[in-house]
């Protein structure tokens, strides 16, 4: 389920941020490391954080679509910062430690950006969109065969929820009818194809006879042409 997955992503996100912050505080990660060493110490966490950010972006948009601009902005900032961090470390440069320093600043910025996203994730988990929350509750109730009447939602949106559920039931019924009609059409097309194949297989080809007739006509015409030529020659000789 979406909420359960979102809880997992929040925990994983927080764990990675804490691990990176802890390594910086203890000196395991610092700007004094060579670029290759700094990348080696951080690459797994950075890649995981990029992947988590992409999936958390999707989940937050589902749970709180009205916050789309804020969600997209913060997630894009973090992803760009982490990408820049990696790009700096793989650049060829005459001053590797200078690159390490630049990358280290990007990493600290990523931690700040990540903390901002983590705060947003917790806020959305606590206060998801009421309509989306009700729909997810309905989906859960349907999957577990629980009563829809047990769904809790603010009183002011109850009419909207009932309207949505009504439309969902109508769509489910309509889709069932369409599926039956499509199956029937497929059956009819299949039968027509089979009948056409039978009809074509029982017909006797007539084209060879026509070809023979045309050849005979050509031969007759050629004979007539030669006969006419001979008559013409006799006429000139007599003359």
In a few lines, what is going on in this structure?
The chain is mostly helical and 239 residues long. Among the domains are: 2-128; 149-188. It is built from seven helices and no strands.
Question: Can you lay out the helices and strands and say which pair or pack?
Answer:
Elements: H1 2-26, H2 35-63, H3 68-89, H4 96-126, H5 130-143, H6 158-202, H7 207-238
Highlighted features:
239 residues; mainly alpha; 0% strand
- State the shape: elongated
Give the terminus-to-terminus CA distance.
111 Å
Number of E-state strands: 0
Strand content: under 5%
Largest sheet: none
Q: Unreliable stretches, pLDDT < 50, 5 or more residues?
A: 145-150, 215-223
How many helical stretches?
Answer: 7
Summarize model confidence as the mean pLDDT.
79
Rg calculated over all Cα atoms: 39 Å
Strand pairing plus helix content: what structural class?
mainly alpha
- In helices, the fraction of residues equals over 70%
Helix/strand order, N-terminal first: HHHHHHH
